[in-house]
């Protein structure tokens, strides 16, 4: 129930990466500015979409010869609207194995949820009876952002080993989405096959017309001499 601020974040404790390197990466994640954190979340979403598309293609590879020659894109393509540094970071997401990538996704979701909760708590505690000066008004966003990051970091430290599970509803929704994607891929392959047949037919017609055109361009032979009376 996102409207009321209720979120269910999967916590696959057995598959999470809890190494020291992962914990250090989590600290860096907590220290990101709001802008960088938003960009990272968008890039991770794109990487999830890329991996799901590749999985669908691999799952349908045995069903048709049309996809056997397809080489999977090993990382996200370069986006000309992004900086070189961001594009490099987006492509490095492909180096994460399934366990590391799942850990990163859950860390981002936890980070986002804690930010929303902290911001909500600050809004509830705000005293609207007091009239703030211009200086206080200018400093309020800075204090709010600092408190949000601080609260989020403390909460993440206490929830490093939190347990949970993927709900049945989430599993069914994901399964339905994959089935829909696979059906679309199958439909596209059928359309591609029909277009290939039509292309071959047009090529045969073109070859036939070229042969007829060449025959018409050949000079006529000598006219036969009429017999003398």
Automatic annotation (TrEMBL):
This is GIT1 isoform 9. Residues 130-139 have a biased composition (Acidic residues). PANTHER family: ARF GTPASE-ACTIVATING PROTEIN GIT1, G PROTEIN-COUPLED RECEPTOR KINASE INTERACTING ARFGAP. InterPro entries: GIT-like, GIT1/2_CC, GIT_SHD. GO terms for cellular component: cytosol; neuron projection; postsynapse; presynapse. Residues 219-229 have a biased composition (Pro residues). SMART domains: GIT (SM00555). Residues 125-161, 210-229 are annotated as: Disordered. Residues 25-55, 89-121 form the GIT Spa2 homology (SHD) domain. It comes from Pongo abelii (Sumatran orangutan). It comes from the Eukaryota. GO terms for biological process: brain development; regulation of ARF protein signal transduction; regulation of G protein-coupled receptor signaling pathway; synaptic vesicle recycling. One of its GO terms (molecular function) is small GTPase binding.
